[in-house]
Design brief:
The complex is a heterodimer. Chain A has helices at 9-14, 19-28, 32-36, 41-56, 67-84, 87-106, 110-119, 140-146, 170-191, 201-225, 239-249, 256-268, 273-280, 288-298, 313-318, 331-343, 345-351, and strands at residues 124-131, 134-139, 161-162, 165-168. By secondary structure, chain A is mainly α. In chain B, 35% of the residues lie in helices and 24% in strands. Classes of the chains: A mainly alpha, B alpha+beta.
Chain lengths: 376, 373
């Protein structure tokens, strides 16, 4: 195919994730030990610099002038991330790296842009003639999987949609590519099979160092976002959670999704299973045995041991549980903000400027159906 | 006077006849060995889950011998569908499914067959209420029934959904598997490989789209001289639907209006064109859903599959009723005035088609006699 010719060696510096780049890495047939040794030392150092940028949330270093070095460094960075083994760090790396790639993509011609997208598994095509000014069509499922936001002008209901295709501008295509790359990187890291035994000492020490730095960083972020010593306060609950509590108190029959939202929320702000059960006691059909089982499940004390986090605002909205416009993306975000404001009014205000929501520790979204899958 | 019939005994007998005489191929589902099955049985509380079958014959054998009252299979595919633990099952993907149920839709016929009882003050009445009209309590017990009118309302919602899936999402109607749920609605299944790995976020966004959730006039219009126009003059997506309603409401497909006028057109358009799907079912990628051609244990009706063309011009109940032979003499002490395609008047001693009598029995009507003729 002619698209194969679209990427030059120079391009591999910018897009070291394309299959051609990975093939090159594979063909070199290098081991980690080779990489840790002189003269390939640069590669490992560059890879470590990438991961460090993720730890600190700073800009990644610019691509190397040497495309081979860049391609190898990217692959090694993924291996280092796998070795550190913390998904939130991988996600951070994916964010900063994809952002840079998004800027490169925005500057490409359409055919190269669409080619790189296809490398990420995105189905998109260049239109023979623009449709309402749009030069590119994304397959609707690719669009949905890569959309940076499901609100405002990105929301599908606001788009021009025709028989499975969504029309987008070049800049939007680059932005969608950025999101697709984030997922791609996370998937790649997930897929890596690491043999820790054969890891050279030098690399092992490097991984340990990165882990320690990331651990310290996480602790710092957590303390900033959920300061200890603040007691749970119902006044700081977001309106949606308050509404569910009110409904329970009023003896209304609250749907399963709302119960899941409430239980996972209360557990996430540090309440014990017993404390949560007290809240549910008001329900008209309260059955301690069943409720305890379910709450313990959500708390990760049963079954898979997976602790469920509450729904984010988008999901609350779709489930009809959102009752207000709070300007947050997650009910917990509302809670921590309100709590800090409540407990330390002046201090919270003073420091708010430094805290962008993006810095909040990442929340792993819970399973919307909760622990008990009920038949439809 | 007769004797109160036992729904478990009678129901099991009819279901047994059905499952023994059915063609096993009717129960075929794609990728059957990768699906989880779940059943509940006559005379048993609760549901048995985490069941898997090596193939169609094994499943048919189970249906023939265990005679389930309700039969479900997972919309998800698993590496080990029989594993007890969700993590161990190894999720591989899930069909995209939609559930349309008249429970969530206002229908004119509910006055004829649905009953509510307030658990707080004991008041009761016909129809469907959100809260008790006497004491305001929301603790309501409901006895719901289904008739042809309800099912036709649900069918119209399915057709609206199909319009979105074809015109907007580009699926072909041949890819869609539509089944009557056996009760008050329909299920629409999409099994194409491309939907299997869709994230829950994407599924939610599809739900928002077909329900018209989040449509905001500020993003749909652009400022122009004298007000706002639709951002795109095109018969596509929601823009096409809005243009249609603008034409009906103000006589032009491309009018200049105020934002609040656009908001009311959006509202009207959503009311008329959005498909009333149950969002929870679509978002859930580990859902259990009724097995096509199995019987619904509360109605005795078949979870009958339909092509879109059949859906448009076939009687749903005719296809779903299984026990069409003979009649049953019943004495109806208390119950609905109309179910399925049968009028019951004010009850008493009635001779009913078998399927209607069985429905009354299975769904808990007070019967004092049940004699097959």
């Amino acid at each position: 195919m002619k698209t194969e010719l679209l990427l030059t060696t120079e391009d591999l510096r910018k897009y070291p994730f394309v299959s051609k780049a990975f093939e090159r890495v594979r063909s070199l047939n290098l081991t980690l030990a080779d990489l840790a040794s002189h003269p390939l030392r640069n590669v490992v150092e560059r890879a470590a610099a990438y991961v460090k940028a993720a730890v600190n949330g700073s800009e990644p270093p610019p691509p190397s002038d040497d495309s081979e070095e860049e391609v190898l460094a990217f692959a090694v960075a993924l291996i280092l991330l796998k070795a550190v083994g913390d998904r939130s760090l991988t996600r951070k790396f994916a964010v900063i790296f994809s952002k840079r790639v998004g800027r490169f993509l925005a500057g490409e011609d359409l055919s190269k842009l669409v080619y790189v997208l296809s490398e990420l598994g995105v189905k998109a095509r260049i239109l023979q003639a623009k449709v309402h000014g749009y030069p590119i069509a994304f397959h609707v499922l690719s669009y949905l999987e890569s959309t940076p936001e499901r609100a405002g002008h990105w929301k599908l209901v606001h788009r021009l949609v025709e028989r499975g295709w969504v029309y987008v501008s070049k800049l939007e295509a680059a932005r969608l590519g950025e999101e697709a790359l984030k997922k791609f990187i996370e998937r790649k890291v997930e897929e890596i099979k690491l043999d820790e035994v054969s890891m050279p000492d030098a690399v092992y020490r490097l991984v340990e160092g990165l882990s320690a730095e990331w651990g310290a960083r996480i602790k710092e972020l957590r303390e900033r976002w959920a300061p200890e010593g603040l007691e749970a306060s119902e006044d700081a609950f977001p309106p949606c959670i308050k509404a569910i509590v009110e409904d329970l108190k009023a003896g209304k029959n609250v749907p399963h999704s709302a119960r899941f939202a409430l239980a996972s929320f209360l557990l996430s702000i540090g309440m014990s299973v017993d404390e949560v059960l007290e809240v549910f006691r008001a329900a008209p059909d309260f059955n301690e045995k069943i409720a305890r089982y379910q709450v313990e499940h959500i708390a990760g004390m049963r079954g898979s041991g997976k602790k469920y986090t509450p729904y984010k605002c988008d999901n609350m909205r779709t489930l009809g549980l959102c009752v207000a416009e709070c300007g947050v993306k997650h009910p917990l975000q509302y809670y921590w903000k309100a709590l800090r404001r409540q407990k330390a009014p002046s201090a919270a205000r003073g420091s708010r400027a430094r805290r962008s929501p993006a810095e909040a520790p990442h929340l792993v979204e819970g399973d919307p159906n909760g622990p008990s899958t009920r038949p439809g | 006077m007769g004797q109160a019939p036992d729904p478990v005994k009678v129901g099991r007998k009819y279901f047994e006849w059905y499952y023994r005489s059915a063609d096993p191929r009717d129960f075929s589902v794609t990728s059957l060995p990768s699906r989880e099955f779940a059943f509940s049985y006559f005379g048993e509380e609760g549901m048995r889950r985490h069941i898997s079958f090596g193939g169609l014959e094994e499943l048919a054998e189970h249906l023939r011998t265990a005679i389930p009252r309700h039969a479900f299979y997972s919309t998800a595919y698993y590496r080990d569908p029989g594993a007890k633990d969700m993590e161990e099952k190894g999720w591989l993907g899930a069909d995209l499914v939609f559930d349309i149920d008249v429970d969530h839709i206002e229908t004119p016929c509910k006055e004829l067959h649905d009953k509510w009882i307030c658990k707080s003050c004991g008041a009761s009445g016909w129809g469907s209420v959100e809260r008790c009209p006497r004491c305001g309590s929301e603790a309501i017990e409901r006895h719901t029934w289904v008739c042809e009118t309800c099912i036709n309302v649900a069918r119209d919602e399915v057709l609206k959904l199909v319009d979105f899936l074809e015109m907007d999402f580009g699926f072909s109607r041949h890819e869609l598997l539509v089944t009557f749920s056996g009760h008050r609605g329909f299920h629409v299944h999409l099994e194409s490989p491309e939907v299997r790995e869709l994230s829950q976020d994407s599924r939610r966004e599809i739900v928002d789209y077909v329900k018209g959730l989040g449509l905001d006039a500020r993003f749909l219009t652009a400022k122009t001289r004298g007000g706002y126009k639709l951002r795109y003059e095109a018969p596509l997506g929601w823009y096409g639907r809005l243009a249609r309603w603008a034409l009906i409401k103000v006589g032009s497909e491309d009018p200049v209006l105020s934002l609040s006028e656009w908001r009311s057109i959006v509202e009207e358009s959503v009311t008329r064109e959005a498909a009333a799907v149950d969002e929870k079912v679509t978002i859930d990628t580990k859902r259990l859903i009724r097995l096509p051609n199995s019987l619904h244990g509360k109605t005795g009706l078949k979870v009958a599959p339909f092509s879109i063309n059949e859906l448009e011009n076939t009687s749903i109940i005719d296809r779903a009723k299984v026990f069409t032979e003979g009649e049953v003499a019943v004495r109806l002490e208390e119950g609905p005035k109309r179910v399925l395609d049968v009028d019951l008047g004010s009850g008493g001693v009635l001779t009913l088609p078998t399927y209607a009598a069985l429905y009354l029995l299975l769904n808990g009507a007070k019967l004092l006699k049940f004699e097959q003729r």
